[in-house]
Each structure stands twice: as C-alpha cells, then as structure tokens.
Write a structure and sequence with these properties.
With about 210 residues, this protein is an alpha/beta fold. It has two domains: about 120 residues, Rossmann fold (3-Layer(aba) Sandwich); about 70 residues, Winged helix-like DNA-binding domain superfamily/Winged helix DNA-binding domain (Arc Repressor Mutant, subunit A), CATH 1.10.10.10. About 60% of the residues lie in helices and about 10% in strands. Strands 2-1-3-4-5 form a five-stranded parallel beta sheet, with helices on both faces. Strand 3, helix 3 and strand 4 form a beta-alpha-beta unit. The protein is elongated. The two termini are about 30 Å apart. This is Two component transcriptional regulator, LuxR family. Keywords: DNA-binding, Phosphoprotein, Transcription, Transcription regulation. Pfam families: GerE (PF00196), Response_reg (PF00072).
C-alpha cells in the first residue's frame, strides 16, 4: 500500500516540521523529518520509492537544489514543494523539474495529504520504471535489437531475414528476452517495452 511508503519532510523550521508531521501522521502517513537537505541526503536511500516534502528556502542546499540532485541521480522519490515565499515562476520551474505539487504555507491538511498520496503512487511507478530500465540495460545489444523488431510487429521469420540469422536463433533470443524481462506473455513484454521506450525518450529530451 502507498501508506507504507516513507514520506520525508525537509524543513529548517522546527515548529513547521512538528505541526506538519502531526497533521500528516493523522492521515496514516509514515513521516521522517530532517532540518536540512544535507541531513536528508546522509540518511536516505535515494534509489527507493518515497515522497519528499521540501521547503524551498533553507540554509545550505535549497529545496530546488535538493530536487535537482534527485533528478541527477534518477531517484524515484516524488517531490512536493512547501514554501512561505512562493510565486508563480517558482511553481512553474518546480513543476518543470517534475514536482508533483507546490504548496504555500500554511498548507491545507486534507489537500496536502491528498497530494502526498498522489505522489506515492507516482513514486511507485517511477521506481518500477527504474527496475524495467535496469533490466533493459542488462540485455545484450542483439537482444535489444530483436526486442525493437518485435515491438515493430515483425514475426520470427521476418526478424531472421532482417538480421540475416537463423529463425532458431531468433526463437532462442526471444525466449531469453521473456526470461530476462521476467514476463509470461508477449503482451506483457510489449507493455514493459513501451514504458522503457517512453522513459528513454524523456531522458533524451531532458
């Protein structure tokens, strides 16, 4: 369940952290708070899913700088900004970076909790896509080539003719693809491949 995923609250104001933690925990969310981005980076495994509620203006690394670091590390952590100094351009830039939402303090509890739940669904999908991408990158160049041709709708014999290899070789590669991608059907493999292709497209455009 999404509620089991961690929510990290990063804000240098003790009173803000206490009030937000109390409020969000009343919605069943699992909150861990930090008084700085540096403390957060020291303690948290950035490869795992979760949600980061990030104050924009903090001593040391700012909220946007923390977010940029997460993007650079391809972390699945979803980000929601909290600020007492928000403006429209800042919100636009935050959303361009992939932030799930942007709240000015004091945030409405119900709306913030709703945004966190949305963020936790987002982070689960991102983490799953990271795993799919790792699986894809572990394939051999030939397996990737054949996967791409399968996605184009080519049959085994057509793939064999296109690559000038025996059809039996294509069949072996196809079986290895199914095993390597841990799928039980062609439809499932194509669904995963479409998510991988979209992820690669987004990274190329970043």
């Amino acid at each position: 369940m999404s509620l089991e995923l961690p929510v990290y609250l990063i804000d240098d104001d003790d009173s803000v952290r206490r009030s937000l933690r109390f409020m969000l925990e009343s919605y069943g969310l699992k909150i861990t708070d930090f008084d700085s981005a540096e403390a957060f980076f020291t303690a948290v495994d950035l490869t795992l899913p979760g949600c980061a509620l990030v104050d924009v203006r903090m001593p040391g690394l700012s909220g946007p700088q923390l977010h940029l670091e997460l993007v650079a590390k391809n972390s699945p952590l979803a980000v929601i900004y909290l600020t007492g100094h928000g403006d429209v351009p800042m919100a636009v830039e935050a959303l361009k970076l992939g932030a799930v939402d942007f709240f000015q303090k004091p945030a409405d509890g119900a709306k913030l909790a709703e945004a966190v739940l949305k963020a936790l669904e987002h982070t689960k999908a991102h983490h799953q896509d990271n795993q799919y991408l790792e699986t894809y990158q572990a394939l051999t160049p030939r397996e990737r080539e054949i996967l791409n041709l399968i996605a184009q709708g080519l049959k085994n014999q057509e793939i064999a003719d296109s690559l000038c290899i025996a059809m039996r070789t294509v069949e072996i590669h196809r079986a290895n693809l199914m095993k390597g991608m841990q799928v039980g059907s062609l439809a499932e493999m194509m669904l995963i491949y479409s998510r991988i292709a979209e992820r690669l497209r987004l990274e190329d455009n970043r």
